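Journal club prep — side note

Before the paper discussion, L.F. wants everyone to see what a predicted structure for a comparable chain looks like in token form. Sequence:
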Amino acid sequence: MEQPYIYILDPYPQQAPEQTRLYPFFQFLRDGRLTTSRCKKCGTLPWPPRVVCPECMSDELEWADLPREGKIYVYTVQETGLPPGYDPPVVFAVIDLANGVRLLSVIEDSEISEIKNGADVELIVKKVPQDRVMPAFRLKR
């Protein structure tokens, strides 16, 4: 019997226009694009996407594509204390993208024994409950 989804422990962001001003990020992700906001005034390219520039406080932002590939800077394997919806073991990694953006992500669809610092990874779109998506990476094939 399938367990009901527990909303009070929901680790995934809401993604509809009426729930977040960052909804275009999730729309682009559904199309296989990894994006973030870029400040039109000072050029800052923050991760994660923002509605206000963390450098100059401008709200004049545009969407910018990020590379779909990167390298694992460092990773860890977590087997206990995971958020709801994650089955152990889960690999969390800091990913360096070619344009200098560094982000935290899960590594999926990969053999844990093959994961190492410096390994090449590529974006995958992870489907999560309630018809939502999240970015994830896998070892490059």
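L.F.'s comment for the group: The chain has a mean pLDDT of 92. Keep this in mind when we get to the figures.
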